[in-house]
Amino acid sequence: MVRGGGAHCRPSLGSRLATWLVIRGVQFWTSQLWGRLLESNVFGTAASTLEVTKELFVNEMKTRLWSWYKQQRRAGREVTAIQNMTANMLGDLNGGEMGWHGSEGNYILEFTLELLDLVDAASILDSSALRQAGRALFGMLTLLRRRPRGCFTDSEVEEFVQHTKIVMRHFLRFNISRPKVHQLAHMAHLCRTHGSPGNWGCWTEEGWNRFLGRIANRSHRATWHSRTMTEFNQAYGLASKKPSSRDKRRRTR
């Protein structure tokens, strides 16, 4: 079983990685569903041009989402809300990434599933498949929230795998192919042999790329390679220490 605990592992990053991959799936799904809502004109936002139509659609979704946030807060529930919504944040609304991240996706998924039950689903293309995939994504996030440190039971592992199969079939059917979707499929496949994704470890060195980039950006282009490695080695204690006078005397004996 792949577990953290080694010199370079952080076990807690496993659940973060799993949640991050599912949230990416939520982004692709939300982009596709909102695109279907736009095409079906369920809110009467059709206009003379696509740009104007999209702007009207964004305003309608923003109003509904902000109202949903207020309802959740009145019920005593804390929600992570996005602070703004623009047409550019929605991308092409064709199964791509959207301009929100992390825990915001948990609540946008819930909002969108509730919205799908309120509108005329018969007028939305592939509404049944979209609803099934959305509920599967919600089930995956529910399991990960229930076990933030992993430790799935055998039945929960099977439930997670079944949810992932539904999501993957949906993405394959509509040709939504991204590296993150591919990685999500591998994660579910390994659940049966490696246990809960929350128990897996990630290499902490992945976070070093940002540190290296900052050093390189403030270095001269003629010496950036040597300065980057020098400062990096010094910061992480990897640079070889200069021999002390005592060490020198020992070597001469």
Question: What share of the residues does DSSP label as strand, in percent?
Answer: under 5%
**Unreliable residue runs:** 1-13
State Rg: 24 Å
Sheet with most strands: 2 strands, antiparallel
Helix-strand blueprint:
Elements: E1 9-10, H1 13-40, H2 50-74, H3 104-118, H4 127-146, H5 154-173, H6 179-194, E2 202-203, H7 208-217, H8 224-235, H9 245-252
Antiparallel strand pairs: 1-2
Helix pairs in contact: 1-3, 1-4, 1-6, 3-4, 4-5, 5-6, 7-8
Walk me through this protein's architecture.
This protein is an all-alpha fold and 253 residues long. The protein has 2 domains: 9-200, no CATH class; 205-240, no CATH class. Helices cover 61% and strands 2% of the residues. The protein is built from 9 helices and 2 strands. The chain has a two-stranded antiparallel ribbon with strand order 1-2. The longest helix has 28 residues, at 13-40. 23% of the residues are buried. Residues 1-13 have low confidence and may be disordered.
Which characteristics define this entry?
mainly alpha, disordered N terminus
Summarize the structure.
This protein is mainly α and 253 residues long. The protein contains nine helices and two strands.
